[in-house]
Specification:
The chain is α/β, with parallel strands linked by helices. It is 30% helix and 20% strand. The chain contains five helices and eight strands; from the N terminus they run βαβαβαββββααβ. α1 (19-37) links the parallel β1 (4-12) and β2 (42-51). The protein is globular. The termini are close together. The structure holds zinc ion. Zinc ion binds next to α4.
Length: 182
């Protein structure tokens, strides 16, 4: 098998999502898969999990970086795959966030442990957000910090919008991360 990344998609407050929002989650995952498929690592097995509104409590909407820390340290799927938390809304200035890089094996941290993404914008925008934050977790920094491995309209620009460009150099770097299986 080609280098691949297994994912646990954890939808926070899923029972409060409208059918349109649930569809946007699927569409965003498909766009993310497309971005990674360009040069790899491929998205491998995707397992689905959810946290009910009642259990999520105040974390059903992410309002701050401390909410991100709390959410990603309260829950973790006990397997080796990367946990990707999906929330409907982040009311802070960011659309998603992630440790750069994420650590494996998983363990609680003082800061954010795993990527958290929102459905801000249309599916093209949120699909990019999903890919961008997962790539941060795999160790990629913003293009502005490492312009030598970024092409134009790159998904790792600080403010990428719906850009989906990804370079072979970025893929090569991501494939060295411990969440990626050979
Ligand atoms: Zn970023």
């Amino acid at each position: 098998m080609a280098p691949h990344l297994d994912l646990n998609v954890i939808v926070v407050g899923r029972d409060g999502f409208t059918p349109d929002k649930l569809q946007q989650v699927e569409d965003s995952l498909a766009i993310m898969k497309g971005i990674f498929a360009t040069h790899g690592p491929e998205i491998g097995t995707v397992l689905r999990f959810h946290i009910d509104v009642r259990d999520a409590g105040h974390l059903v909407v992410i309002r701050s970086r401390s909410d991100v820390t709390e959410l990603t340290n309260r829950w973790a799927v006990p397997n080796a795959a990367l946990d990707l938390f999906v929330v409907d809304q982040i009311t802070a200035e960011f659309s998603g966030t992630s440790p750069i890089p994420g650590r494996c094996p998983k363990r609680a941290t003082k800061g954010k442990r795993a990527p958290v993404v929102s459905l801000r914008g249309d599916k093209a925008f949120s699909g990019n957000t999903f890919a961008h934050e997962v790539a941060h977790c795999l160790g990629l920094n913003h293009c502005e910090l490492i312009p030598s491995i970024c092409g134009p309209a790159n998904f790792m620009a600080t403010d990428p919008g719906a850009n989906t460009g990804v370079t072979e150099a970025q893929a090569t770097r991501m494939k060295t991360h411990c969440f990626v299986s050979p």
